[in-house]
Amino acid sequence: MHIMKAIRIKLWQDLVNYKKPTSFQLKETYPLPPYSTVIGMVHTMCSFTSYHPMEISIQGKYFSKVNDLYTRYEFKNGMKYEKSRHQLEVGEYGVGRGIATAELLVDVELLLHIVPEDQSLIEEIALAFEVPQEYPSLGRREDIATIQEVKVVQIREVEAEDDICLDRNYGAYVPSSILGKLTFTPDMHSNIGRNDMLGTRYLLTDKYELVNRGTAKAPKMYRNWSKKDVFYTTSILVSEEDEFFLDEDGKPVFLEFA
User: Fold this and answer.
1) How far apart (Å, rounded) are the C-alpha atoms in residues 165 and 167?
2) How far is CA 134 from CA 17, 41, 131, 137, 141, in A?
3) What is the SS3 assignment for 40?
4) What tens digit of pLDDT does each residue of 115-129 get?
5) pTM summary value
6) In whole angstroms, what is the distance from residue 33 CA to residue 225 CA?
């Protein structure tokens, strides 16, 4: 049986964009923040200067989506300023300025479980969110997060005594490796059968390592990202007698099984 401690954080955001890296003309957003975004927030809040391995469970909801205009700056490395081409001159270089559109989630509520590999970091991480040294943000730097709850909880793999489902209107990232532990329940008025509609599949960035693709004298460092194969879904049921991770308050926690 797996037993561990986690920091459970409930937070709220007004308008936020969790940018999909492949979107350009319209800056699209994921329905929930990717793992790397949450891990980055934890490291920033704790002022960590090196990577600390951790597992993250992400669930939450939003009210609606809107599109918003923003100022976009573009430049090409080494391109000289041309009056007919560029709107701004920076030194001798040219910068293009225009408008673009960002997709924003409205009224976002998140429930995060943070499980550091080094369990001795539990209290340090919890304190960093209880008494933040700077304003917390998640997504873009301007996407301020209001922390509503910070609680250290115990997580264990248990046999469910009753059917367990997500909170009302909540969705979650479910790692594909634990799909066999869950039942997916479509809308009661739908003709789709159980487990026929899993949700939207994503490959989400998790963590990275720096790789030198240059030489020792002329290094060119790149981020080599590892990714998690997950499904985003809102219709989850942990059936009675199934084994699954729950926290001490009965909240489901979506962690990959070893």
Assistant:
1) 7
2) 20, 11, 9, 9, 12
3) helix
4) 999 999 999 999 999
5) 0.86
6) 16
